Amino acid sequence: MRLFLSIAFFVASIFCCHAQQTSEDIDALLREIGAKDQQARQNLNNAVSKAQVDSIALYAEAMQLIDQANQLHVKKILRGGVPDDLSHEAYKALFLVIDHADIKYQKNCFSHLRKLSTKGHINPHDIATLKDRILMNSGRKQLYGTQTKARPIVIIEGDTTPQMVNYVWAVRDPQRLEARRKSVGLGTMQQQADTHKKVGYEMIFDANLSKKEINALTSSKIK
User: How far, in Å, CA of 183 to CA of 199, rounded?
Assistant: First the structure.
């Protein structure tokens, strides 16, 4: 109950006036937004890794509510204009909220992030990540190999090691993938796989798999 009361308070705070906020106010708000975004995902990942069936649904719902509230905040900030003197954490929070939104929101905000990137506020690899996500969500091949689709996880109560597998979404021109990644400051695909492993996921990259095959492998209908 306390969790949802906290979320409700956070959502209600959106309707406070943004017009008179200083750069310091916006910076503090975005850093809070970023912290909530990451904590919500950490809570859900922990519940999945520990096969806590009841908690998974609770944290998934909480994450959705937090994302919706964060998106409303960011929409208002973008409308008013993003200051040029925010902290790195604040600009990163802007990216996270947009990256975790639906494709319509991502497309509407992409130009804002790209403009901030030209000023040095948003990392090029974050722009590449969002570009990949938009491409994947549009059913097209990605450019930088940042996006994956998860195979359905079978959760058995008490099983502390559920098998979690992510397939890298189909990539355009895979022969030049590593060079493209390097050009925007992304690590190698092996480094990306190592990062997935640290949070309990096996990452599978097979450049020969088609979009159709990847969708089949990650379908909820798979037996």
Answer: 26
